From TrEMBL:
Biological function: Catalyzes the stereoinversion of LL-2,6-diaminopimelate (L,L-DAP) to meso-diaminopimelate (meso-DAP), a precursor of L-lysine and an essential component of the bacterial peptidoglycan.
Lineage, highest ranks first: Bacteria, Pseudomonadati, Planctomycetota, Planctomycetia, Pirellulales
Pfam short name (any one): DAP_epimerase
Protein name: Diaminopimelate epimerase
Pathway: Amino-acid biosynthesis; L-lysine biosynthesis via DAP pathway; DL-2,6-diaminopimelate from LL-2,6-diaminopimelate: step 1/1
InterPro entries in alphabetical order: DAP_epimerase_AS (IPR018510), DAP_epimerase_DapF (IPR001653)
Active-site residues per Swiss-Prot or TrEMBL entry: 73, 222
The protein's assembly and partners: Homodimer.
Keyword Amino-acid biosynthesis: yes
Annotated source species: Anatilimnocola aggregata
């Protein structure tokens, strides 16, 4: 099976072009194997680039390192867009890509025939508690108390197609991310588990984020998470609608647009190498 390793600000996945390769018999098991950083390729998960069954240019299927499938992946979608363009599946500067959160439009900045940066319309955030889904109080739950591993946090929950729990903190330390990430991910208040963002506000237009991802643990970046942070910052009155988010692997530009209610996310997409995975 031919694969390509790609990364978006350090959030790295193994990508398989299912326009050419057969859809894997057991994608969950394959995700676990390829993601292993010692015995596999090494990645935060597996992304399958498939023909769309809804008339889009391609369909992204995304599996975390633990084999669970997610509805959406913001950094992954930029890389899918780059792959679809650069590998000639559709050589257009604007693409429509199918995800578990509907068909999303992406705009590519192309230099010397290759996509370098991608702007994704991430769609409208989902704010109703039962659709996020969460049992936290409030709809949307903004600045509400959550207890995990014996500690109380003030959190805001948002779905960008996948669930996020945003926590604004004075310092996003190892103690918080590594000590509480998994406990919050698996809290009974989130029936489908949750991605967790620990966020420092640097100014009304600038934040720093660390991410504990559902199914993959700490990653260098999370695009849906950065989008959820943009929304949570506005809902909780901490930040403006346009922010720069500094993640461990690099920066993303975000805007929660007042006119259409959609979140726009811009950042790089990079191809690292290709190889063959034994079947
Ligand atoms: N890193 C991704 C999100 C990947 C999926 C997430 N772990 C989930 O289970 O929802 C991103 O860039 O959005």
């Amino acid at each position: 099976m031919r694969f390509t390793k790609m990364q978006g600000i350090g959030n790295d996945y193994v990508y398989v072009n299912c326009f050419q390769e057969p859809f894997p018999r057991d994608p969950a098991e394959l995700a676990k194997q390829v993601s292993d950083r010692h015995f596999g390729v090494g990645s935060d998960g597996l992304i399958l680039i498939c023909p769309s069954n809804q008339g889009a240019d391609a369909w992204m299927r995304m599996f975390n390192a633990d084999g669970s499938e997610s509805e959406m992946c913001g950094n992954g979608l930029r890389c899918v867009a780059k792959y679809v363009h650069d590998h000639g599946i559709k050589k257009s500067p604007q693409l429509r890509l199918q995800t578990g959160n509907g068909i999303l439009t992406v705009d590519l900045e192309v230099k010397n025939g290759k996509a370098e940066r991608v702007r994704v319309n991430m769609g409208k955030p989902i704010l109703e508690a039962e659709k996020i889904p969460t049992k936290l109080v409030g709809s949307p739950p903004v600045n509400v108390t959550l207890e995990a591993n014996g500690r109380q946090f003030e959190v805001t929950a948002v779905s960008m197609g996948n669930p996020h729990c945003v926590i604004f903190v004075p310092a996003a330390t190892d103690e918080l991310v590594l000590g509480f990430g998994r406990h919050i991910e698996t809290s009974p208040l989130f029936p489908k588990r949750v991605n967790v963002e620990f966020v420092e506000v640097l100014s009304r237009g600038e934040v720093r984020q660390r991410t504990w991802e559902r199914g993959s643990g700490e990653t260098l970046a999370c695009g849906t998470g950065a989008s959820a942070v943009c929304v949570a910052g506005v809902l909780s009155g901490r930040t403006d609608r346009r922010i720069v988010n500094h993640l461990l692997g690099g920066d993303l530009e975000l805007e929660w647009n007042e006119q259409d209610g959609c979140v726009y996310k811009t950042g790089p997409a990079v191809e690292v190498f290709s190889g063959d995975w034994p079947e």
